[in-house]
Write a structure and sequence with these properties.
Radius of gyration: 27 Å
Mean pLDDT: 85
Oligomer: single chain
Helix content: 55-70%
Low-confidence stretches: none
Largest sheet: none
Strand content: under 5%
Shape: elongated
Number of strands: 0
Distance between the termini: 71 Å
């Protein structure tokens, strides 16, 4: 029984059964996505400045 288990474990983990890695192809971003990313980035910067000013007052 041990040899059967060892054989099955070896068979299951063999690299023959593994699929090759297909590298993902990056997609181009649309102008709308770039606009919203820029807007979100500016909002994050404004929020960080506001938090820094609130913390500096205390």
């Amino acid at each position: 029984m041990r040899s059967l288990t060892l054989f099955l474990a070896t068979l299951i983990t063999s690299p023959v059964l593994a699929n090759s890695f297909d590298r993902p192809i990056p997609q181009a971003q649309s102008a709308t996505a770039e606009f919203w990313f820029a807007l979100a980035s500016l909002a994050l910067i404004v929020a960080l400045v506001m938090v820094q000013r609130m913390v500096a007052r205390r």
